Amino acid sequence: MTTKIGNLKVPPASLPVFPVVFIMILAPIYDHLIIPFARKATKTEMGVTHLQRIGVGLVLSIVAMAVAALVEIKRKGVAKDPGLLDSKETLPITFLWIELQYLS
């Protein structure tokens, strides 16, 4: 996959940084937006129970797997069209498609 964003070339070894960045962005959103809203909606101090958190985690895992499947279908389609299935060449698709899996 192409690891360029505009003129910037991102080294493949630095791709694991993206999940950390997503967590750093989403954790404050969870603490400052989602939990206060849940407290108002449920009128409890916790906002959501442990079982509800587990359920949401399972649903998000399903969504992440579905996104991963769609990304792999997209990658295979891009490789299949120009005949790059068994080639060592870089696929003409951006690596940001993989980062969608980390976001979900």
From TrEMBL:
Its main location: membrane. GO terms for cellular component: membrane. It comes from the Eukaryota. It is found in: Membrane. Signal peptide: none annotated. Keywords: Membrane, Transmembrane, Transmembrane helix. GO terms for molecular function: transmembrane transporter activity. The keyword Transcription does not apply. The chain crosses the membrane at residues 12-30, 50-71. It holds the Pfam family PTR2. It is a multi-pass membrane protein. Belongs to the major facilitator superfamily. Proton-dependent oligopeptide transporter (POT/PTR) (TC 2.A.17) family. This is Uncharacterized protein. The lineage of its organism: Eukaryota, Viridiplantae, Streptophyta, Embryophyta, Tracheophyta.
